[in-house]
Structure to design on (849 residues):
């Protein structure tokens, strides 16, 4: 371990990979302070400055307060779906520290006065949650906790899609308002929180806001899990201090020295060229100058011999296929954008031009019920910007200088 | 206004409402296919669908009112909205009431669409697929003109238009193979069923009795062989008969050639009742009367007043002899009249003889 | 996409905005026919709606467009100040 990596959430990882038992968990972290008053819990979370670790980065205390204000009998949902293919942090967390997540869910439920908590996962991680829940029977402060499995689709993890499924519908986004915090599961105010956020919450409740703030920046305190993959020697999930230099993370992961760019934030993220990455920090503030943000906290390093346009075309095609198919601008627009990109790469239709592509990017954004098309559009726009040299070559019909080796993981 | 005006109006309104409803269904079905042109934008087609429905409701109201006012058949306003309660052909008339009720429901729910929500509205609107064929079958089962060729053509065209529009709609993409199969099957099966029923029912002799026409409106004592498809009305006059006559006489003023037109219309008593119409054209003679130059006459039961058509073959004072021909027989009538010119009424006796060809 | 409405000074702006439910919307396109000043169709027939508040003069047309939508996907909302 290097100095950049912190071990708060991932401290309990055993060498043999087996998740800690409840007893081991308690030995390591202490009991969850379920006796704390709801008001005190929310105050701790508010003072800690914890923000959502699922991608939106919303202040957690604000979300809890909004749910509290919205009405009686709220519900807490732990979102462990992690639909982004290059992201693996939630899966690792659920597999290696399920008790932290469940602690967090229970504490969040206490904070908003909920009697019901649901842990939503895909089929792959359900066994870990089920086993952990089995160990905790009767020790959940009267809060009913259940585990629910959702289909493994990209959009299933979107807040309204998750709630839609829990209400008996398909795992597809719904038209908002009302948002889940107003009316969610069974019509009740629902706090949907990422599992990592809940894990941090579980530690904040124990050790306090001041402890949490010993790491990170003022605006973005604490540590965060980040998945690194691509042209790196040691791909995997790293826990880093927010605000730490990006270069340190890349060095820890053993990234290629001559990598050309990084995809920051998963498939809804943006490309950042290698030089800029060296100057960036692992935080939204540290990435903003380069047109990027943490997003789903997944980094894919692009080696020098892969074509950024080609990789983006593959991602675009994947995202097009993962459209919920409900909104015309998305289910027509994303495949059309993927088509344009592929034509640029393969030069299959005469003289390619990027005018149609740019026009479509403008048309498709901000017209869907969820952010799926917006994420795709932002990704493609950043590719056209960062890989402008390659784009020029493709537009002039010159051969791609890269081997088009595929790097980005597409399921 | 002749005593037939209301009856003709009822029949006409019935046909017109069938045509309007067919257009409405075609527009509704095709509307989903996103067809448009610069001269027919979608909002115009949608507006037509809506307005033709409202127009159809008005025409149907006219159809119902004229039928009730005509009074020939025992049908009341209540029968028009409460299905199967009339004494006249309860089932087939009742179907008309069913269709009318459905149409009212479709209209009201569509006007209140914003209040009931889209999904509820959509489910209810499927009733349109029931209302239209029911209206069509009502027309065939109870309509006077059901056996006439032009009515058959009209009905077939309506069925064809709706079938074609449905097939066009399911031909578009975004329709599952199961839906396509179900629609195609329905489009073929329903017309076949209706056609089969029509050929074995309304198209055949004796339908009026089987359909539930009250006995007082049917001929008595006539037997017809089942299985024969006859184009005339199922009831006919006896071989020899004497009836009393009551009606009106009208004389037009002289035209440019100095001719006048005298028309005598009225009904004969008995069963079957008869409707008689005599037209006489000629120069007026001093002292009353007309020197006849042309004539025409028709006689028949109320359901087919033109069953026998012909002219005057003898004219002597107030005695008129008529020779009339029908589909398969001829009728000679001798009419003795007492005329009241001031009131324009004519009464008398009619002696008739019917001879089969 | 659209420039916001040009207020010539004689056409005051209302507090109404158009909003479409993109899940219900099926690209029928009646709205764009009835309110071309505020709604354009993209290449696939789906509406692109002007986000700015509507001028008063367009309000009756906007209501007509809302009523004409076959799937009731379009709505007029009052801006909350």
């Amino acid at each position: 371990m290097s100095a950049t990596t912190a071990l708060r959430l991932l401290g309990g990882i055993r060498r043999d990979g087996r998740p800690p038992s409840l007893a081991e968990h308690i030995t390591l972290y202490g009991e969850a302070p379920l006796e704390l008053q709801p008001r005190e819990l929310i105050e701790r979370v508010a003072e800690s400055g914890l923000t959502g670790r699922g991608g939106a980065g919303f202040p957690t205390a604000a979300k809890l307060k909004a749910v509290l204000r919205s009405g009686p009998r709220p519900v807490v949902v732990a979102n462990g779906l992690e639909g982004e293919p290059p992201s693996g942090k939630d899966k690792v967390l659920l597999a290696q520290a399920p008790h932290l997540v469940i602690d967090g869910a229970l504490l969040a439920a206490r904070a908003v006065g909920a009697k019901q908590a649901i842990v939503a996962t895909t089929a792959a991680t359900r066994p870990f949650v089920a086993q952990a829940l089995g160990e905790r029977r009767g020790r959940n402060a009267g809060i009913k906790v259940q585990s629910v499995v959702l289909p493994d689709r990209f959009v299933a993890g979107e807040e309204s899609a998750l709630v839609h499924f829990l209400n008996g519908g398909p795992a597809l986004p719904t038209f908002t308002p009302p948002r889940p915090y107003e009316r969610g599961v069974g019509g009740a105010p629902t706090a949907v929180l990422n599992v990592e956020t809940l894990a941090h919450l579980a530690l904040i409740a124990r050790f306090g806001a001041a402890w949490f703030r010993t790491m990170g920046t003022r605006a973005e305190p604490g540590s965060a899990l980040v998945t690194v993959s691509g042209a790196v020697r040691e791909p995997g999930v790293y826990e880093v201090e927010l605000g730490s230099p990006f270069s340190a993370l890349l060095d820890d992961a053993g990234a290629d020295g001559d990598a050309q760019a990084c995809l920051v934030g998963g498939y809804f993220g943006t490309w950042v060229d290698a030089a800029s990455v060296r100057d960036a920090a692992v935080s939204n503030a540290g990435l903003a100058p380069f047109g990027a943000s943490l997003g789903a906290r997944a980094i894919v390093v692009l080696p020098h011999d892969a074509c950024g346009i080609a990789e983006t075309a593959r991602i675009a095609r994947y995202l097009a296929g993962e459209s919920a198919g409900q909104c015309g601008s998305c289910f027509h627009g994303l495949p059309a954008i993927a088509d344009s990109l592929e034509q640029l790469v393969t030069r299959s239709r005469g003289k390619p031009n990027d005018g149609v592509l740019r026009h479509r990017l403008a048309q498709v954004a901000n017209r869907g019920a969820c952010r799926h098309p917006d994420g795709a559009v932002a990704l493609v726009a950043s590719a056209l910007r960062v890989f402008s040299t390659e784009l020029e070559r493709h537009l002039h019909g010159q051969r791609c200088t890269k081997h088009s080796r595929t790097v980005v993981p597409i399921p | 206004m002749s005593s037939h005006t209301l009856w003709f109006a009822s029949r006409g309104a019935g046909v017109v409402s069938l045509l309007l409803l067919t257009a409405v269904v075609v527009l509704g079905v095709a509307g989903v296919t996103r067809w448009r042109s610069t001269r027919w934008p979608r909002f115009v087609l949608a507006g037509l669908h809506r307005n033709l429905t409202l127009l159809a409701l008005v025409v149907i109201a006219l159809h119902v009112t004229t039928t009730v006012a005509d009074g020939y058949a025992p049908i009341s306003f209540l029968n028009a909205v409460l299905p199967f309660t009339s004494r006249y052909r309860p089932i087939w008339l009742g179907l008309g009431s069913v269709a009318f009720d459905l149409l009212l429901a479709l209209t009201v729910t569509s006007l209140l669409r914003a209040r009931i929500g889209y999904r509820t509205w959509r489910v209810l609107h499927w009733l349109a697929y029931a209302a239209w064929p029911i209206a069509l079958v009502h027309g065939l089962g109870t309509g006077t003109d059901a056996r006439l060729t032009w009515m058959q053509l009209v009905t077939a065209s309506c069925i064809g238009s709706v079938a074609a529009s449905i097939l066009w709609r399911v031909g578009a993409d975004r329709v599952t193979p199961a839906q396509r199969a179900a629609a195609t099957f329905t489009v073929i099966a329903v017309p076949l069923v209706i056609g089969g029923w029509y050929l074995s029912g309304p198209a055949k002799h004796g339908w009026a009795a089987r359909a539930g026409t009250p006995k007082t409106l049917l001929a008595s004592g006539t037997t017809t062989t089942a299985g024969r498809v006859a184009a005339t009305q199922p009831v006919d006059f006896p071989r020899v008969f004497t009836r009393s006559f009551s009606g009106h006489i009208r004389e037009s003023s002289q035209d440019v050639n100095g001719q006048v037109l005298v028309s005598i219309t009225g009904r004969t008593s008995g069963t079957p009742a008869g409707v008689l119409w005599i037209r006489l054209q000629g120069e007026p003679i001093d002292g009353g009367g007309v020197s006849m130059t042309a004539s025409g006459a028709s006689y028949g039961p109320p359901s087919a007043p033109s069953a026998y058509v012909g002219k005057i073959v003898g004219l002597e004072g107030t005695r008129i002899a008529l020779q009339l021909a029908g589909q398969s027989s001829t009728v000679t009538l001798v009419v003795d009249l007492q005329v009241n010119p001031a009131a324009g009424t004519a009464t008398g006796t009619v002696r008739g003889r019917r001879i089969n060809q | 996409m659209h420039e916001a409405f040009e207020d010539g000074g004689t056409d005051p702006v209302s507090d109404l905005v158009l909003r479409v439910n993109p899940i219900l919307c099926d690209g029928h396109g009646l709205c764009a026919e009835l309110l071309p000043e505020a709604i354009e169709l993209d290449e696939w027939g789906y509406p692109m709606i002007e986000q700015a508040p509507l001028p008063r003069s367009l309000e009756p047309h906007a209501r007509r467009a809302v009523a004409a939508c076959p799937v009731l996907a379009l709505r007029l909302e009052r801006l909350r100040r």
The interface with chain B takes residues 24, 27-30, 33-34, 45, 67-68, 70-72 of chain C (CB under 8 Å). The domain at 16-78 of chain C is CATH 3.30.70.20 (Alpha-Beta Plaits). Chain C has a mean pLDDT of 87.
